[in-house]
Amino acid sequence: MTAAPPEQKLSNEELLASVIADLIGDVRHVAVGNASPIPATAALLARERGGGKPYVSLLQSRKHNFFTDGGRELFDCAGQGRIDVFFLSGGEIDGEGNINLVSIGEYEHPKVRFPGSFGAAYLYYVVPKVILFRTEHSRRTLVPKVSFVSAPGTSPENVFRNGGPIALVTNRCVFSFDQTHRRFRLESVHPGHAVSEVAEHTGFAYVQPAAVPETPSPSAETLRLMRQVVAPELAEVYPQFAARIFGVRVPA
Amino acid sequence: MPQIVPTLDEALASIADGCVLAVPRENSGVAMAATRALIRRGVKRLELIALPTSSLQADLLIGAGCVALIETSAVSLGEFGPAPRFTAAVIAGSIKMKDATCPALHAAFQAAEKGVPFFPLRGLIGSDVLAHRPDWRMIDNPFGNNDPIVLLPAIKPDVALFHSPMADRAGNVWIGRQRELATMAHASAKTIVTVEKIVDGDLLADATLSAGTLPGFYVDSIAVAPRGAWPLPLPDHYAWDEKHLAEYARLAASEEGFAKYLEQYVYDRRAA
């Protein structure tokens, strides 16, 4: 097995994984759903930097998955507050943090159909830090109002809820989410992208501070961990991603 | 006493037209050889319930016109993209859709295995998933104060169908840590299992094996189907056939391509 040389140029995927690892913070258990190679990279990176903390559950992995009570255990775990961070996306995401994983147009006669809500209509309520992640930052995906609410960004006070969105990470920028005012705030713009470009490609209103910093690039040590320690681990679950981004080849 | 039968068609005989059929998620052991046999037999109007999602199995059955209704949290080919026949059928309105969320399906099956009429679940409130499920109810938590919570009616399928690594001659089935398969079997009136092989000895005799064994008590019929989950994976035994799934995704993008796929991989028994 070989890994990328340290002098290789920083990729967008590495930048996003580093940003997400910082958002994860100091927690006990991070779970990652299906088809999420960048969040999985971030979770494994957070674990390396934390010397084995947090626990990381990659749902698609045989190795990084301790569940022995069937598919329900993840949700039972989350229901009790035993999962601190999860990742969700959406065919559409709106400015109030509502996400749509179902369809566009009338529900009975949709124009566009997505796969479905998966666990979102539950996990969005019970996982304290949900990080929204969408690599297509456009007016098609970041919309004024979603066509179907797979899960709402916020809930009325009497509805049991100890979780929800904390941030939205895209290929252009990082937004934080303010649950009290039900809106996103532009936190940083990735290197090579501009504040005006974010405005041009975002379909919802958000708070824009007077000065928006550039998203910090990962340190040399973070990059080394990602490329040399995390990437080979990742290859078990995401062989194509690990090969494309990190040049990791698993011998057949 | 479970019947160990020589052919898939005999094992599947109790799956009649209109059957409420429970099937597991992609990486739990999907009975794909059996699914192809059902399509060859021309089963109609299935009410398919995925625990809690499905991929190629639902897409094939829908594309082949075997499904009237599907209840699921998602249908997707994962890394290989959207499920094309599912997507086309929902847009055309040719199947009835009951959108759920994963833990709701787990909970509704658990209600059935406990023999209780419903199970409560957090989340859901304020979502359009709930808004489009008139069969789900919201009540005020009788032990709380102004605490709305959703109740899900028990799901009691006619038949559960899945694929596992092995069974013994008494019909005990080793499912390993795929515990949702036990829940599915407990909840369903009948359970049909295909297995890689039948083994000598008693799976319940050894504590290491029995912890991962579904007792034959819950099983009705078993047939041997080597590589019976192909092209989907069987945990710890074989992985996805990536090349085949990529080919499926490409062919199933059009009705003509899908028909070609059926001809080549489903109707031609030499390939199945």
N→C terminal distance of chain B: 29 Å
Number of helices of chain B: 10
Number of helices of chain A: 7
Average pLDDT over all residues of chain B? 96
Q: Can you tell me the residue ranges of chain A where pLDDT is under 50 for at least 5 consecutive residues?
A: none
What is the CATH architecture annotation of the largest domain in chain B? 3-Layer(aba) Sandwich
Largest sheet of chain A: 5 strands, mixed
Q: Biggest interface pair, residues each?
A: A-B, 47 and 53 residues
C-alpha termini separation of chain A = 10 Å
Helix content of chain A: 25-40%
Oligomerization state of this entry? heterodimer
Give the strand tally of chain B: 13
CATH topology of the largest domain in chain B: Glutaconate Coenzyme A-transferase
Helix content of chain B: 25-40%
Description:
- The complex is a heterodimer of chains A (252) and B (272).
- In chain A, helix 1 (12-24) packs across helix 2.
- The model of chain A has no long low-confidence stretch (mean pLDDT 94).
- With 252 residues, chain A is α/β, with parallel strands linked by helices.
- Chain A has 7 helices and 12 strands.
- With 272 residues, chain B is of the alpha/beta class.
- Chain B has 2 domains: 3-102 and 156-267, Glutaconate Coenzyme A-transferase (3-Layer(aba) Sandwich), CATH 3.40.1080; 118-153, no CATH class.
- Chain B has 10 helices and 13 strands.
- In chain B, strands 1, 2, 3, 4, 5, 9, 10, 11, 12 and 13 form a 10-stranded mixed sheet that branches.
- In chain B, helix 3 (56-63) packs across helix 4 (84-92) and helix 5 (102-114) crosses helix 7 (180-187).
- The interface between A and B is large, with 47 and 53 residues.
Quick synopsis:
The complex is a heterodimer of chains A (about 250) and B (about 270). Chain A is built from seven helices and twelve strands.
Fold blueprint:
The complex is a heterodimer of chains A (252) and B (272).
Chain A: H1 12-24, E1 29-32, H2 37-49, E2 55-58, H3 72-79, E3 85-88, E4 92-94, E5 99-100, E6 103-105, E7 110-113, H4 120-126, E8 129-134, E9 142-143, E10 165-170, E11 173-178, E12 183-189, H5 195-201, H6 220-234, H7 239-246
Parallel strand pairs in A: 1-2, 3-8, 4-9, 8-10
Antiparallel strand pairs in A: 4-5, 6-7, 10-11, 11-12
Chain B: E1 3-5, H1 8-11, E2 20-24, H2 32-41, E3 46-51, H3 56-63, E4 67-72, H4 84-92, E5 96-99, H5 102-114, E6 118-121, H6 128-131, E7 137-140, E8 148-153, E9 159-168, E10 173-174, H7 180-187, E11 190-199, H8 207-210, E12 213-214, E13 221-224, H9 242-251, H10 255-267
Parallel strand pairs in B: 1-13, 2-3, 2-9, 3-4, 4-5, 9-11, 11-13
Antiparallel strand pairs in B: 6-8, 7-8, 9-10, 10-12
